């Protein structure tokens, strides 16, 4: 007696291949860790040390739409900012620095001011063995609501 062999299908079933690929894509999207670029590292004071900022006792830096600086109601180029702030912060290290930006100003103008403040921190307080600044400037960035509320004082 001769047995007949069943012919096997030579085709690979791919009907669920799209489903599997889709599930793998979703799985990797959900579980992937994206490395975010580290932003500006500013240290906030502890809650008990936060105090109301009196504008007359602070250094007020306004960045205009043209990225020009007005420091304490006087126009000032960026290169003179550290020389202006250094004696004031050496006398009173807790003196707040208010940085107000015009909504039309560019990010570059704000970063230039932050860079000057960071360099000033290193000059005044020095750096530890890891290269980190030992102390930080008491920096305030008011919101549009705060600017509207305190506009008469700024």
Give a brief rundown of this model.
The protein is α/β, with parallel strands linked by helices and 154 residues long. The chain has helices at residues 17-31, 81-91, 107-125, 144-150, and strands at 59-63, 69-71, 74-76, 96-101, 138-140. It has a domain at 58-150: Nucleotidyltransferase, domain 5.
What does this 3D model show about the protein?
- With 154 residues, the protein is α/β, with parallel strands linked by helices.
- It has a domain at 58-150: 2-Layer Sandwich (Nucleotidyltransferase, domain 5), CATH 3.30.420.
- The chain has four helices and five strands.
- Strands 3-2-1-4-5 form a five-stranded mixed sheet, with helices on one face.
- A hairpin with a 2-residue loop joins β2 and β3.
- α2 (81-91) packs across α3.
- The radius of gyration is 29 Å and the shape is elongated.
- The N and C termini lie far apart (105 Å).
Indicate the topology.
Blueprint: H1 17-31, E1 59-63, E2 69-71, E3 74-76, H2 81-91, E4 96-101, H3 107-125, E5 138-140, H4 144-150
Parallel strand pairs: 1-4, 4-5
Antiparallel strand pairs: 1-2, 2-3
Question: What structural category do the secondary elements indicate?
Answer: alpha/beta
Radius of gyration: 29 Å
Coarse morphology: elongated
- Assembly state here? single chain
Jot down its keywords.
154 residues; alpha/beta; Nucleotidyltransferase, domain 5; 5-stranded mixed sheet; 34% helix; elongated
